[in-house]
Amino acid sequence: MPINKYNHLLKSTLTFSLLVVSHALYAVDTQSDDTDALADDAVDTISVTASRIARGTKEVPAAINVVDAKRIDAEKMQNIKDAVRGTPGVLIDSNSGGYSSRLIIRGAGQKANYGVREIMVIRDGVPMTDPDSFSRFDFIDTQDIERIEITKGPGSLYGSGSSGGTIQIISKSVFDVDGNRVKVGIGEEGQENLHFRYSQELNDSNTVLVTGSHRAADNGWREWNEFDTQQLSLKHGLMLENGATLETELSYSQADLQLPASLTESEFEAYRSSGEQRNTSSQWQNSGRYSTIWFFNSRYEQEFGNLVFKPRVYFNNWDHYHPVTGAINDNPGTNVLGTDIEFAYKHNLLGVSTLVGGVTARLDKTDGAEKYRYADIVTTPYDPPGPAPVVDQIVRTLSDRKGSLLSTEDAANTLFGLFMQETVRPTDRLTIDAGFRFDRMNFDIEEIAYGEYSWSTKSYSTFAMPVTTKTDATFDLFSPKLGATYALSRTYSLYGMVAQSGQVPSESEIQSNPNLDAATATNMEVGLKARAKDWSLDLSVYRTTVSDEIVSVLQPSGQSEFQNAGETLKKGLELSGKVALGRYFWLGANYAYSDYRFEDFKELVRTGATLNAVDRSGNQTPFVPNHQFSLSLDYDHPSGFKARLQTDSWGSYYMDNANTEKYDGYDFLTSLMVGYETGPHAISINVDNLFDKRYATEVKKDTSGNKTYYAGAPRAAMLTYTYRF
Predict the structure, then answer these.
(1) What letters, b where the CB count within 10 A reaches 16 and e where it falls short, cover 462-486?
(2) CATH C-level class of 3-401+412-462+472-724
């Protein structure tokens, strides 16, 4: 982005922010001390994620963003990123265009080659994140979401072993019998979106809800990029005579996703000229993830005077066929069994107080997972340096059909946790949170390998005898938190917090490097929050020190190796605000400044068989831009017309740990929704990438200088009709 253009955008955003702040200060100066009058102007959003109890976001000493039902309804919701993009401090995009997302919060998650790491993802209080921090979105029905709560940084009571933050996806309640609908959407690039929701009160105590969804896209602008998913859910709600509620859900998902190949620099430039991605030089043309998932959860809630008891249990069985770099993973089934027993106790301790506590336990058990060679490949003779024999180097895969067996694996990942937080209110204005989580995680893995893919020679080899490798690693994570919120008035408040969170290596990382330590993130943060009838403002400034951060090193062979950095310092500012413009318009702006640097890091760079430690101390961490902007304009008229325009900008970022080169990012990536609603009927059109920008969702550079690009999707429109009954 040119400097003058960048400065203009920065000045525009800061000017908007100053206008909102000035509005807030003027309102505070002119308000009376009559709290009843002030209450008419105080509007807040309820959140349950940071503290496990329902509280206004203004009262929580943490940076929280809530994506509400109105925003979600304005999006086509093919992917979770449709609703989350633009959130300050949150970087989200999709390299595939399907359900998968690359998600980073305050720098956490950037080491992940695929999926989401270091961020706790929860759905209705049930963790979607594995004990090793891997989160999957394949069995989340994006058409059945009521709101999304994002808590950034350490400190959430839900966040076991996640340093980046917590995302909770709250689905539509089984007791909401007025939300029945049928939704049909079709669009360019083969987009399809079918959804139905039907709920019925069987009697005064029982309610049932059935939902079903189908989403698909062929993404014909590039090869090997089809996406298709089917989801069906049955929910039951029971209200007992003693006031207790029992909610139960059983769901089934089938998700098929082809993962397109990466691009070289010249191929990316060709894509920018043509708008299409064809015949790339990547070895791995047929990656994908094809899953089926059964998911059951049941949660109970009952009050006993001042005590609220909330236990839940859940079971998840998933299998997948997952061709990736070098091998095809065939997992016949992982069983996940967990429970979360929680209570909230209201009492008096320095004023009105609430004690939240509980225990959690989880087991992820996999038996007989297998890895295979690719059966259909193109090879060429390769003579490695030294006395090694000539091998058949893989040039290209031709299909995702599996060949001979490479290895088998049995794994058991366990998690046991204890959490507790005391919230006290010594005065009407001051709220203090003090709490902690303690989690013990264990990886017990046994692998029997019959051969392997060699990253150095890019070929398969067969062992003379099977090689058995056992991994047994345990991590103890202690995550304390102390925070306080002071209400300057009914309109706005100040907060400060100190929190710590641990971060375990993933299963694959600990297998490749058994010497990895868990990372520890310590965060100090202050902020300002304002809530009023026609405007709102959130401002946070934070400083996070991460010791032993797990860093990805992309070697010349294309292999990602993982090591601990001594220390990383992350400093940032996040600003989010919106203001009403007349009766029908809302203007919103988000901005994040991120300065993340390695304070102590010696990168192990591989040259042949030699590893050399190269000092990267003082360098910025890759992929995270210093500046991130988002502007939005919403229109909602009583006649039924509505519209939403949003534009997002990512500043430049370094491609590698060595800071040798920057990618320019993108500016003003714009989406548009225009709709009309009358009675039970609603019709809308969503256009992504309105101006058809050619950009990259991610650019990486290995230690030898080779660059890898993933292209962003071109402009695509989708027309949706909804009938509510």
Answers:
(1) eeeeeeeeeeebebebebbbbbbbe
(2) mainly beta
